[in-house]
Specification:
Arc Repressor Mutant, subunit A, alpha/beta, single chain, 345 residues, 8-stranded mixed sheet
């Protein structure tokens, strides 16, 4: 899958926000990281597998906030945490998303939480990975101000990602400038009152990494404990991203599937997709997996399936893996037999 084309929308206060859309299905808004560049990171072997997996299952929406990536740089002294609310709202409004899933990591979980509280009618589900409700001070704050190059290299080495820091450092430098990173950090630290987590009524999944610092897992657990009926899952993964499809994706997919959210947004269904949806109550497979399975029963190769569904071969392989697990099939022949027994061929 080629990186999706970048488009722009202007916020209410005049900032140009870069965003991109890929895939089909339930709209899935992936909030940016504090280090973010929607175009460059699509090309990295670390993040691309997750993006492709999400785009193979959802209508994936990504964007750079003001001050980072391809969006307007140069944050002023009046920059506040609420600015990020306007960035999210601008993208959502441009795409006219009526109902969607929001997924956020780290400190940007606070933006997702605030949006879900203000617009509960819009957010189908909330997914928070190692969430932070405020940006804690740390021993690197002085380094951030005094030696930016060393700060970036240090963060790259401590990121917990399996990618070579030598690869991450130039990417991080293109994500955000020193003045904007400092402005972002200050905005999060002088943020207003914390969101009332106990008032959230949106179905919520809180994820934490087994390999993250204990303090980080404790903060994630605290967030989960305050949100009514939130699910809390600790995954044995080094981070949100990995060179292969991350465990995070499978946890997200299982959570969304359990909520029974329709596969497509209103007005976007095709007859074949509606037919696939109608089979879901009797099948553990998602609509996309049903589509893949039907093409398998026709004798299509992975490459042919990828071309017909406009997805990557890696995504096809991921879908096949899910199909084998959910149906108990050991190979394509077993999956074909399952499809014939359940009227999915």
């Amino acid at each position: 899958m080629e990186p999706p084309p970048v488009r722009y929308v202007t916020t209410a206060d005049g900032f140009s926000i870069a965003y991109c859309v890929s895939g089909e299905g339930v709209p899935f808004v992936l909030m940016p990281n504090i280090w973010n560049h929607i175009q460059l990171f699509w090309r990295t072997p670390l993040r691309r597998p997750l993006y492709e997996a999400l785009a193979g299952r959802f209508r994936l929406v990504q964007f750079d906030t003001r001050g980072q990536g391809l969006s307007t740089r140069g944050l002023g002294e009046d920059h506040t945490r609420e600015s990020y609310d306007r960035d999210l709202e601008a993208v959502v409004d441009r795409l006219t998303l009526a109902r969607f899933v929001v997924c956020a990591r780290g400190i940007f979980a606070a933006t997702a939480i605030h949006y879900a509280l203000r617009h509960p009618e819009c957010v189908e589900a909330l997914i928070l990975d190692n969430p932070e409700t405020e940006l804690p001070s740390n021993s690197f704050d002085q380094l951030m101000h005094e030696n930016w190059d060393m700060f970036v290299e240090t963060i790259a080495r401590l990121s917990g990602n399996p990618e070579d820091p030598a690869t991450l450092v130039p990417l991080f430098r293109q994500c955000v400038s020193q003045p904007d990173f400092i402005a972002m950090s200050q905005a999060w630290r002088r943020a207003g009152p914390k969101a009332a987590l106990e008032q959230i009524r949106t179905p919520t999944l809180v994820l934490a990494s087994q390999r993250s610092p204990l303090a980080s897992r404790e903060r994630a657990a605290r967030v989960a404990s305050m949100i009514p009926e939130a699910r809390y899952v600790i995954l044995d993964h080094p981070g949100f991203y990995s060179p292969d499809t991350p465990p995070v994706f499978f946890a997200i997919e299982e959570f969304i599937a359990s909520l029974g959210i329709p596969e497509m947004s209103a007005g976007q269904e095709t007859s074949s997709q509606l037919e696939a949806l109608s089979s879901l109550p009797a099948s553990p497979l998602s609509a996309r997996e049903v589509e893949v399975l039907r093409l398998v029963t026709q004798g299509k190769t992975n490459r042919q399936i990828a071309e017909e569904l406009v997805i990557s071969e890696r995504t096809v392989i991921n879908h096949l893996s899910h199909i084998f697990i959910k149906t108990g099939a050991e190979n394509r022949a077993g999956a074909t037999a399952y499809a014939l027994r359940h009227g999915l061929a």
